[in-house]
Amino acid sequence: MATARPNYGITRIDQPEKKNHGYYVRITHKGKGHQKYFPDKASGGKSKALKAAKEHRDKLLSKMPKYKQEAAAKKKRRIKQSGVTGVTHVVSNSPKGKTYQYWQAAWVDGGGKRKTAKFSISRYGNDKALDMAKKARRAGLRKKN
After folding, report:
1. Residue 27 in 3-state DSSP?
2. Given the DSSP bridges, would you call strands 20-29 and 99-108 parallel, antiparallel or unpaired?
């Protein structure tokens, strides 16, 4: 198995008001989420909690297909910024190795459901796809009210 990026799938949780400190492992594959929390205190300290979280993450990844393991090992790309909350640049790799790039707009509709719209950069070009995503988000938010 390829070695995953140091903190791939691992998030630090520090909530002093709740006395909650530790590492949270979250890996999603084919719509199924795998998650586990490693508190500092129960793990014997911050460094031991991180070590346990990494071991758990690596164990999860070892059971997944090769393309998922390779994605975890790849260096994270710098994300393009849209300047608009809810509009993100996405780079997606298919299991066959093809890379897709698109701008995605996300919002919550009047019924509380999360909605998204995707605009292909290869089809529309970067600037037009970004503009379309911004317009789709604005339109989705207007329908909410």
Report:
1. strand
2. unpaired
* CA–CA gap between residue 133 and residue 125 (Å, rounded): 12
Q: What are 9-14's contacts with CB under 8 Å, separation 24+?
A: 9/57, 9/60, 9/61, 9/72, 10/50, 10/53, 10/54, 10/57, 13/37
**Segments making up each domain of the chain, as ranges:** 10-73, 87-144
Q: How many CB atoms lie within 10 A of CB 130?
A: 22
Q: Which two tokens stand for residue 145?
A: 């009210």
- Report pLDDT digits (tens) over 19-44: 899 999 998 888 888 899 999 999 99
Total-model pTM:
0.50
